[in-house]
Specification:
single chain; 589 residues; mainly alpha; 3 domains; three-stranded mixed beta sheet; 60% helix
Length: 589
């Protein structure tokens, strides 16, 4: 970054610690926060489905614009925001606003840098993709008034235009050799198939018309106002778009897709992947260095697994014990109801003990929810979905109950701690509840921080009355091995040219995950390179910071204060987090 606003985090944190900055003025703050507000409004208009998700219902009749013109307009607007920020006089800002400005500068720079790489030429995958967004609209879209149903119908009718724009990008991608691996599209196709039915009433997009509010059932609407008719028309047009997309993917795109899986096989792919690794880890670690960290971590974790094997009377190495646990039906769920019950029991016990580790806890509630059937086969074990801005519904800890017999019981504790409390829900909800922050900051997501915290939270289960038996402790180690293996297989595929089968075989040999989980995970890394690196890299940095603070402070170290400080400024790059926590420890000492 260049210009007047740039990251100067050490000096900034010193200014915050000293309590002020001469020359700050209210006019500069108003100008800066006006810029933040303009940016947030731009984000809402650019991603109307997300706006609805957050409780901003001004764009409930729209879908994301994937057109060439829409992309160019967005990039031009981002550059304008960057120019406006650079024109500001940094010395006139308060310490808090300097931090806000630095985070904002980073957000803009990363968005514009990402646009230099042709990800937009591959818009379809089995996760975080337009067909998924279409199927999920009904989960967050309100259905209380006639206007709500009109808006939903308009959204569904807008999908064919969105499909045309997506196809135009994929056509360009074919010409430039920037296409998805075949396996990714082969997994996206069943998701589209699941939303195409012979009868409109059988389509899941039509579901909102089956549960009308009571007053609608007796209201004499005209045909043009009938909520059921509005949804039926929209569903029919959306299915027309889905059929066109399915035909294109099957007949045109899939034959042009790659048999290889790594980004290193794309034009300038190794450099592209290096950029993704840097973005997701917020470090300058090379793919080769990350790969070796994964191997080193696995060696340590396997030694711990062998200790547990001996504890339960098993005389074999880590791989043999992993195979035994994976094959033992007693260690796996048998039905969805038991899976959900077990998760509730884990969280009920651990949530009650959270004050031992945290001085500040979130007010936002969360609930368990099963991942929807249309996307569950290609989904990972779980997701966390934050609550909307208006708190009209709770946050969701989504659990995948597809093929429950493949879901181990011994990993459930670690999964619950990671996705809900003290993991994603605690961290994300706390950041969201900082009403004094600019809105964009409350929703800023640095992958290494968020996922590093989630993985670190799994280890806090020991302090929360969990991991009482050796098998659940093995499950925690298995999850550690899973995340360490990610460093190896993600860099292996995308930097070193590994095949999909090589990655699957490596995970089977080194983790206790079921084969079903391993396959869905590997396919996720294929479609979303670099993201999986953030977990272990982030966790290792948090553990290192905690050890350093404990050493500096000795008897003065308070884990509650440490956690509150670590989470106190929301999601930050790891380098900024280190500067912040180092200064905190020095101040305490």
């Amino acid at each position: 970054m260049s210009g007047k606003i740039r990251p100067v985090f050490v000096s900034l944190l010193l200014l915050v610690a000293c309590g002020g900055l001469r020359g700050e003025n209210k006019a500069a703050s108003r100008t800066l926060h006006g810029l933040f507000e303009d940016f947030w409004q731009f984000r809402m208009t650019r991603a109307p489905e997300w706006a609805t998700y957050l409780g901003d219902h001004r764009y409930n009749d729209k879908l994301t614009d994937y057109s060439v013109v829409g992309r160019e307009r967005s990039l031009a607007t981002l550059r304008q925001f960057q120019d406006r920020l650079r024109a500001m006089d940094r010395s006139a800002l308060s310490p808090a606003d300097q931090l806000n400005a630095d985070v904002f500068a980073r957000v803009l720079a990363e968005e514009l840098d990402a646009a230099n790489w042709p990800e937009h030429l591959m818009p379809i995958r089995q996760q975080n993709s337009p067909q998924i967004a279409l199927g999920m609209i009904r989960v967050t879209h309100p259905f209380k008034t006639l206007k709500d149903y009109e808006n939903y119908g308009k959204r569904l009718r807008a999908f064919p235009k969105q499909v045309d724009d997506l196809i135009a990008w994929m056509d360009e991608g074919i010409k430039k050799g920037v296409v998805r691996p075949k396996i990714t599209i082969e997994q996206a196709l069943p998701q589209i198939d699941a939303m195409i039915t012979e009868r409109i009433e059988d389509c899941q997009l039509y579901e909102p018309a089956k549960t009308l509010p009571e007053e609608f059932k007796t209201h004499p609407y005209t045909t043009s106002q009938d909520p059921k008719a509005l949804v039926a028309i929209g569903t029919a047009e959306a299915m027309t778009g889905l059929k066109k997309l399915r035909t294109y993917l099957r007949e045109t795109y899939l034959p042009k897709c790659r048999d290889t899986v790594g980004y290193c096989h794309l034009p300038n792919g190794k450099a592209w992947y290096k950029r993704l690794a840097k973005y997701h880890t917020t470090t300058d670690l090379s793919p080769e260095a990350i790969h070796q960290i994964g191997l080193d971590e696995l060696k340590r974790i396997h030694a711990e697994m062998v200790k547990i094997a001996r504890e339960v009377g098993f005389d074999g190495d880590a791989k043999a014990f992993i195979d035994r646990m994976r094959a033992d039906p007693r260690q796996h769920n048998t039905n969805a109801a038991d899976m959900m019950r077990r998760h509730r029991e884990i969280l009920r016990r651990s949530d009650a003990l959270l004050p031992k580790l945290f001085g500040r806890l979130p007010k936002t509630p969360y609930e368990l929810k099963e991942i929807e059937s249309f996307r569950s086969a290609a989904a990972p074990d779980a997701y966390y979905y934050e609550a909307p801005e208006d708190n009209s519904r709770p946050a969701y800890f989504y659990v995948n109950v597809y093929k429950p017999e493949t879901r181990p019981i011994y990993t459930m504790e670690a999964l619950a701690y990671h996705e809900a409390m003290p993991g994603h829900h605690l961290q994300i909800a706390l950041a969201r509840e900082h009403d004094e922050w600019p809105t964009f900051r409350r929703f800023t997501a640095v992958t290494a921080f968020i996922e590093g915290w989630g993985l670190y939270s799994e280890s806090l289960g020991f302090d929360l009355g969990g991991y009482k038996d050796p098998y659940s402790r093995f499950g925690a180690l298995s999850f550690d091995a899973w995340r360490a293996s990610r460093l190896v297989v993600d860099t292996g595929m995308h930097d070193m040219g590994w095949t999909r089968q090589q990655a699957i075989d490596f995970m089977k040999a080194n983790t206790g995950l079921s084969e079903q989980n391993i396959i869905s995970e590997i396919d996720r890394y294929i479609a979303w390179p670099g993201q999986a690196l953030a977990y272990t890299i982030g966790k290792l940095e948090i553990l290192k910071l905690r050890a350093e603070c404990e050493k500096r402070l000795g008897a003065k170290f308070d884990v509650r204060a440490f956690h509150d400080e670590l989470l106190g400024e929301g999601s930050l790059p790891l380098t900024t987090l280190r500067e912040r926590m180092t200064r905190w420890a020095e101040g305490k000492r």
